[in-house]
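[agent] plan:
  1. take the single chain provided in the ticket
  2. run structure prediction with default settings
  3. attach structure tokens to the ticket
  4. add a short note for the reviewer (M.T.)
[agent] executing step 1
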Amino acid sequence: QVQLVESGGGLVQAGGSLRLSCTASGSIFSIQVMGWYRQAPGEEREMVAVIRKEGTTIYADSVKGRFTISRDSSKSTIFLQMNSLKPEDTAVYYCNVQEGPLSAMFPTWGQGTQVTVSS
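[agent] step 2 finished; step 3 output follows
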């Protein structure tokens, strides 16, 4: 199984930028998708951006044009560059991987990192 370590959250003013990182270790060869989800207080967890094994990316409409997901050459670390941050981006951001065979993938979650955007 994969283990995930996240970093990069913090407090920033509206309009500012933050960069999140997530490094996977363990059975990284089994990873099919890596991505970021977020959960605001009282809200359900939602997908922010994901990157598939082959490199295709998917973004939530709310972050398109502001956030960019990328990964390093080893495909074990992903980044989320967040620009033009808004107060509504405030949430706990979780790194997620979908690992295992395509017919039976299962999720693994990071511990979460707080992002707070002040107005």
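[agent] step 4 note for reviewer: The first strand starts at residue 2 and ends at 7.
[agent] ticket updated
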